[in-house]
Amino acid sequence: MNSKNGIIFSCRKAFTIIELIVTIAIIGALAALIIPRMSTWMEPPERTLQRAFIEAIDIAKNGISIRFRIDKEERRGTIIPEALVKEEEVIGFSRRTINTWKAMEMRWKPTGNAWAFDPEIIYFYQDGVCTPAKITWGVSPYVDNYLLTVTGYLVERKGF
Where are the domains of the chain? Predict the structure, then answer.
């Protein structure tokens, strides 16, 4: 230790190995608590649905007709995004073009199998609007209700 004008200074210029080990142990303990919670976190279904609606509106603005329908066995089911595609049909020597709906892959596909739409199909148009709808997700008594506006915005509704 050096002394200058009655003040004692330490000549230490670095951390000791004990201080480094304790710091690393604290960081490791915090990581052990946080990482398992983050790995099991799932995004809420209404957020993925909102992202899927935004993506569908963007696709529709590029000239591709899009619709969402429910693939259901009973009253509720999974959401299937579909695009309107042209196919050629050959009958004998003649060909004709027909429009059919085909399932499509989306970056933000809505998850879950307890969705219900009213009306049953939601269409997205080239001008950036969509069919307004009442959307429910979940199984009774844990049902979440939403309204889809014409502009594609999803609004949570309580008590309807």
Answer: 2-39, 45-157
Helix (H) or strand (E) holding 37, with range, is: helix 17-39
Is 0.85 surpassed by the pTM of this model?
A: no
Distance between CA atoms of 43 and 36, rounded to whole angstroms?
15
Instruction: Give the bridge partners for 86, in sequence order.
Output: 99
CA 71 to chain centre: 19
Q: Residue 1 above 60 pLDDT?
A: no
Residue 36 clears pLDDT 80, i.e. is over it: no
DSSP-assigned letters across all residues of 97-154: EEEEEEE---SSPPP-S-EEEESSEEEE-TTS-B--EEEEEEETTEEEEEEE-TTS-E
The residues with which 90 forms a beta bridge, in sequence order, are 95
Domain 45-157: give its CATH superfamily: minor pseudopilin epsh domain (3.55.40.10)
User: Which residues in 2-31 are b (16+ Cβ under 10 Å) and which e?
Assistant: eeeeeeeeeeeeeeeeeeeeeeeeeeeeee
Q: Is the pLDDT of residue 41 over 60?
A: yes
List, in sequence order, every residue forming a beta bridge with 130; answer none if it has no partner.
Answer: 124
